[in-house]
Amino acid sequence: MKVITASHVEKEPFATPLFTGPEVSLQRLLPQSREFDVNVVNFGKGVRNKFHAHDHEQVLIVTAGKGIIATEQEEIEIVPGDVVLIPANEKHWHGAVEDSDFSHIYVSNPKSKLTQLED
């Protein structure tokens, strides 16, 4: 058994073309797991990822700030304590609202492939 304290895990810069801004960091919570990909993503104010989809389900657990989870049909504000299940292949984005940083833990299958659907 291993206990991880997320606040003690180093934040790595996580700037990729998937994000709308550079103020994003990643905390790898369980890099040794073979069955789960579990990380914290920290977004700066107003930063989000672009529309994308995963070929496996994804779970988001909001840990700090205020964010938005969106599909082409709706946008929902999410706050700490909210848990979101995103079905496989659902086109979506998530990120911080304009006036708040935002963090979530994501849980997915390590074999999951992400397809970016927005430039």
CATH architecture label: Sandwich
Q: Measured on Cα atoms, how large is the radius of gyration? A: 13 Å
CATH topology description: Jelly Rolls
Helix proportion: under 10%
Per DSSP, the total helix count is: 0
What proportion strand? 35-45%
CATH superfamily, by name, is Jelly Rolls
Order of helices and strands: EEEEEEEEEEE
Determine the structural class based on helices, strands and strand pairing: mainly beta
Distance between the terminal alpha carbons, to the nearest Å?
41 Å
Which stretches of 5+ consecutive residues score pLDDT under 50? none
Shape: globular
Strands across the major sheet, in which order? Answer: 1-2-3-10-5-8
Instruction: Identify the CATH class.
Output: Mainly Beta
How many DSSP-defined strands? 11
Name the average pLDDT: 97
Count of distinct structural domains: 1
Can you summarize the main beta sheet? 6 strands, antiparallel
Could you please describe the fold and organization of this structure?
- The chain is mainly beta and 119 residues long.
- The chain has a single domain (27-113), classed as Sandwich (Jelly Rolls), CATH 2.60.120.10.
- The chain contains no helices and eleven strands.
- It has strands at 12-13, 24-28, 37-43, 52-54, 58-65, 67-70, 75-78, 83-86, 93-96, 102-108, 114-116.
- A six-stranded antiparallel sheet has the order 1-2-3-10-5-8, with no helix packed on it.
- Strand 2 (24-28) and strand 3 form a beta hairpin.
- The mean pLDDT is 97.
